[in-house]
Write a structure and sequence with these properties.
With about 550 residues, the chain is mainly α. The protein is built from 27 helices and 5 strands.
Length: about 550
């Protein structure tokens, strides 16, 4: 006798469209035969990732059964990632990962994109019928809600969820989670929080804890959110989304070092998540942790080989960090890093040929790599090849900044400053670009020199705050040997010298030193944040000279 569940599942099998993705023909044929024995008559097959994506682009499939290991090219995680990103799978579609692979790295990586189930090979008829049958019954029950979400009709989806909760107790957890997510999407945080609190009052469920943290963030209760998120990752160490939210919250809260440590732990647990590796690389770069940044960019590039998220910026960033690491290092390690930078950029040129500015950006970074290895002729040749393709009047900010950085490194500071002045005039209303321009004007040197200059600057500030004016002057002067045109550093030194003068210091000597510092900033763009301070100190100095 057929149970109501089996009858409902059987009816569902017949109505759906299936896609089987596996690199072994025998397995594809075997799975198709099993599905047909359930009554399925619309079964497509693909032997690799590209073919599967192509089929899904032009056809809708209700159920995708995909092997994880597909030989060369995309694996199952890449396929799921791309289908989700390009919205080629509806919310009502089912994606089952079928694999003999059981490593933690695979499971954690694939789980990032939320397959509906895993099936371990070998797959037999009973296993598939039981697992897929229950998913199809759930799909049918929740189809009206998912259809409205696909149509972005969120108020109607909310209404359907509310109505379904008392009559669909079997799917109450899914309905509560979906309803709370929908409330957050429409900005109704009070109702979302009520759901999370009700769920957590009955059971300690990780998705409800994370949802509550998102509400706290929306309410700008950052410290409370951080505490809750730290507790969550400590208790549920494999809940990867919680790490991402915690890292983002810490970074926004001015704690980039803590944020980086959280992402480092997350990438150890789930090393195959490309976008998280990229987030770590970007954060480590901004934290001046060049070694961690290089390793993370390297993994980002490797994981991007078959990913929809592959991007030339990843290669450019790896080339830049390798250039920084290898600069001035002519040992075997330095030469190896320089060679890796060149090969990375060459690979990018081939992979993304035709993309705007790719060759120009690559040549400019290569020029710095060669300069850092004392290969001056090669560096000049790269710059000479790049310059004819650059229109100074229309170049975008990325090209302009890369050109200025390279001109500084190849000892053409006047040209570099002219490029930055042009950019500052064109992008004065863009705060992000202006910050990059100011940073480059202030510190047009390599990574290691920046660190040394910043260390000396900190020493100077600490000495000034302690009242040791002579020590402060000496530290600032040493820093200015490295970055002679650093705006705030020059102005800091002027202020310390003026303080010395007010306390009876050598008048003529101090005034002449102040003039040298301010003259070094003669080309400071009016758009620079330090420009008003620069003018004010010039005026004050003039008054002191004539006093």
């Amino acid at each position: 006798m057929i149970s109501p569940f089996e009858e409902k599942a059987s009816q569902g099998f017949h109505k759906l469209r299936y896609l089987i993705i596996d690199d072994f023909e025998n397995f594809r044929v075997s799975m198709r035969q099993i599905l047909r024995s359930f009554g399925a008559d619309k079964v497509g097959m693909a032997s690799n990732g590209n073919a599967a994506i192509q089929l899904c682009t032009y056809e809708h499939f209700d159920v995708v059964l995909c092997d994880y290991n597909l030989g060369t090219g995309k694996n199952g995680q890449h396929i799921l990632e791309e289908l989700r990103h390009r919205k080629l799978l509806k919310r009502s579609s089912l994606f089952l990962m079928v694999t003999a692979e059981t490593s933690k790295e695979m499971v954690m990586g694939a789980r990032e994109y939320q397959p509906d189930a895993y099936l371990a090979k070998p797959v037999n008829r009973a296993m598939l019928e039981n697992r897929l049958g229950s998913l199809i019954v759930q799909r049918q029950a929740l189809l009206p809600i998912n259809r409205e979400i696909d149509l972005d009709n969120l108020p109607e989806a909310i209404s359907l969820c509310v109505k379904a909760i008392p009559v669909q107790p079997r799917y109450k957890s899914w309905l509560m989670k979906t309803l709370a997510d929908l409330y957050i999407r429409v900005g109704d945080y009070a109702h979302a929080r009520k759901i999370y609190d009700n769920v957590l009052a009955q059971r300690d469920i990780s998705w409800a804890q994370l949802g509550k943290c998102k509400v706290l963030l929306a309410e700008q209760a950052y410290e409370d959110a951080i505490k809750e998120l730290q507790h969550l990752v400590a208790k549920h160490s494999d809940f990867m989304e919680a790490y991402d939210v915690l890292a983002d919250t810490l970074a926004r809260g001015g704690k980039p070092g803590e944020a980086q440590r959280i992402l480092e732990k997350a990438t150890e647990l789930s090393p195959n998540a490309m976008l998280r590796q990229k987030s770590l690389a970007e954060l480590a770069t901004s934290n001046q942790d060049i070694d961690t940044a290089t390793s993370a960019w390297r993994r980002t590039v490797r994981l991007g080989d078959h990913s929809i998220h592959d991007n030339p910026d990843n290669y450019l960033s790896l080339g830049r960090t390798l250039s920084e690491l290898s600069e001035g290092d002519v040992t075997d390690i330095g030469r190896s890093q320089a060679d890796e930078a060149i090969s990375t950029l060459t690979k990018m040129e081939k992979r993304f040929s035709g993309a705007a500015d790719i060759e120009v950006l690559s040549l400019l970074i290569k020029a710095r790599v060669y300069q850092g290895q004392n290969r001056y002729k090669d560096a000049c040749e790269c710059l000479a090849q790049a310059e004819p393709a650059i229109d100074y009047d229309t170049m975008n900010a990325e090209v302009g900044l890369e050109l200025a950085r390279t001109l500084f490194h190849l000892n053409h500071p006047e040209q570099a400053e002219e490029v930055l002045k042009t950019l500052a005039q064109r992008f004065e209303s863009d705060p992000v670009t202006m910050q990059k321009i100011e940073n480059l004007l202030d510190e047009p040197v390599g990574f290691k020199q920046k660190l040394r200059a910043r260390s000396l600057t900190r020493q100077g500030i600490e000495a000034f705050e302690a009242g040791s004016l002579g020590e402060a002057v000496e530290a600032f002067k040493q820093a200015l040997v490295i970055v002679p045109f650093h705006a705030s550093l020059n102005l800091n030194l002027v202020q310390v010298l003026m303080k010395q003068l007010s306390e009876g210091g050598a008048r003529q000597e101090i005034i002449e030193e102040c003039q040298r510092c301010l003259s070094a900033l003669a080309n400071l763009p009016e758009q620079h944040r330090q420009y008003r301070r620069y003018l004010a100190l010039w005026t004050k100095l003039e008054g002191m000279r004539h006093a």
